[in-house]
Amino acid sequence: MPSTTVKEDVWIHSVCNMCLGDCGIMVHRVDGVVVKIEGDPNCPNSNGKICAKGLAGIMSLYNTKRVTTPLKRTNPQKGLDIDPGWVPISWEEALNILQEKLGAARKEDPRSVVVSAFDSANLREVLAPWALAFGTPNSHWSGYFCGQYLHSSMYLTNGTFHSDFDPEHCKYLLLFGNQAGFMAGLSPNITSQKVALARKRGLKVVVIDPICSNAASKADEWIPIKPGADGLLALAMANVLLNELGVYDRDFLKKHTNGPYLVKSDGFYVRQGNKPMVWDAKEGKAKPFDAQVEDYALTGTFDVEGTKCRPAFELLKEHVKQYTPEMAAKITTISAATIRRIAEDFGRAASIGSTITVDGVELPLRPAAANIYRGAGAHKHGVMVALAIQTLNLIVGSFYVPGGHRGMNLIGPSWKWSPGQFDGLVVTPHALGHGANYYNYEVKEPQTMGLLELFPISTNRSPMLLSSSLDAKKNKLPYKPKVLLVCRRNLFRGGVDYGLTAEALKNYEFIASFCIQMDEVAQFADLVLPEQTYLEKLQIFPNSLSWSQSAQSGYFYWGVRQPVVEPVGESRDWGDVLMELADRMGFIGQVYKHLNVEFELNEPYVLNPSQKYTKEEILDRRVKSEFGPDKSLEWFKQNGFVSVKRKVDELFPLYKLNVRFPIYYENIKRAGQQVQAVTERIGLKDWDIEDYEALPTWKEEHTGEDSAEFDLLACNFRVPTHTQSWSYQNPWLSELSKLNPYAEKILINAATAKKKGIKDKDKIRVRSTVGELVGEARVTECVHPQAVGISSHFGHLTGKKSENHEVNFNNLIPFDQEHIDWVSSGVDACVRIKVSRV
To answer: Which residue ranges form the domains of the chain, and what is each CATH number?
Structure first.
């Protein structure tokens, strides 16, 4: 009989990458084979727990459909339905081809090289310094589904990348188009643990969503809303709070917002020098905002040296009067009585004036939070929607205090908040966002594919990279893109209109795509390169301070993602390949210089540009520079994490902050004027600046199509057992989705289906102005009567088509003037459609 003796049985610390939560994991390896994955109890983001996606990581590693060797195209024709004629080649040949193509492009104009990536750790560890050294600013094409509107509005309002809340003290949680606390969204593992405990303590959850999502099905109340109307609902609620109930936190608005700033009739601040003025009601005169003021006036009309002006808060109060519950009810389809009720419930739950003592510090207690994520704002006027919802938190003072809204790590162990040098308002700390200062910007002629020079209030301009790939000359760029490197990103499944996307990719002279499995982008690539899964990678500190370290855990923590097995086939980490190319092409020393800055390396760990280092040596220097010589890379591999308990001011920073938060956005109005001046000067006559307003405003959407024919609205929804679209390639998760009666179906309301003669399980066709799909109808009450719900995870089009290959939501989404948020560059993910039986 063969021996059954186990020669190896080990547990290895690492970090999951099956979503952006980056949970700490323990990987069980027996005789060189991964047999189990569990949550790492050493990681505060996991607490020893793990979700279905994390458990299924084994099958991403051992999936038999993985790309295992470099492949070269032999068929020059490209298209979704065209066989590329792949032939396997060696890595040496692949690297020679890459070096030749990149070298020629760099010599002519390095900006002609574009990189698309969404592998978060490598974005910081490799791509940012590599792109700087290479000479291209075009390394941020991540697809429209990244939260353009969300991050723009959060950087503006809370100074960080994300929208978060404190479930440990919250009593009333409004979820606008998101599933935070229900295994989706920001830090889903720990947030779901904390929300589950909070609900046992009595937390009430109200979900506002066109679809009865996983979160809505488990909430205390689901309020179906017409897609795209969330901003209107929020403004109507603000009107009720401000003008009907008089419920608002006067002390917070006076001391911690720009509500007292005096505004002229032209919409700009009254200033003394560069400083906005406020009115001291006690002394009866105007003063700079940072002067000693006895009592800030929030209302009234004043005369400052002959200029009539009013406080920004009064302008907001007057502005929202137009959004009555009755007016909002007609559009949102939520009754005026319900709008008034949830506004009153929210205001009452905020408990304005109450306090709580945390670790010996007395703090304001505002146990009500309105939370937003992609669903509510992925529309044409997305930034305005998010600012409207944030206004609810700001009105009641639910900002960086127990129970309320907060951002991601405004104060941390090695950084402090911005001192408010721009009108006293919050600005993102350098550690949390490079270039996210929306007060100090320069609007100028475009030089980048993302046209970032024309989007001063935006953090991700990915849709504009698609636009420039289609026609760089039309966007007034002084060069044409030629080479595209795609690093674990699907520009179809994370994009729009497949016809336009295919046309854009055909414009590139050369494309190399790093793939774990074949996808739509690979159909247009000249080289396909086998990419590693996260269980084969070495990356340090993948738990990003800006997006995967929520304060929910109560700690700051730093970990290592390390290889737990040898790579499958000839797969390589795309970051390692870029570093090898930098060495071959002679600019690795420049990469090292940028890594010294990116990692803030201290002596004796600074990289010498004239030497060569292994990846392990570079990462070892980084961890020692951060934590001292005792905490080496090897220490992290053996121990997993360093954790530091958060102090009170790191959990609830308001009492320590000498900055204000905006309820009035003079900087957006000012940016709009500058954008208009530049775009008109360079001949971009159709550039839309209508949303560059100082107060959040609701505007009608979906006006570009014939509503008589296209009578429904398609919106997508998220299944908590999947991440974006790539997780459907995981066999276990694919099988799991088939057990979900809604996941792969087209959701249509029962009454709507009856009118159209559609029955449950019928094959139906969904058609927009740019694309169509066919799938199985799920007739249900769990979707708004004017909406059709389609999950965005499924429907790959390449290779052997999946059973539900027709259902690929993104192909429905137009990309044109009428479907872009012109503040953030986000694309409207809700589109008018018509539905019929097949």
So the answer is: 150-256+320-410 (3.40.228.10), 712-837 (2.40.40.20)
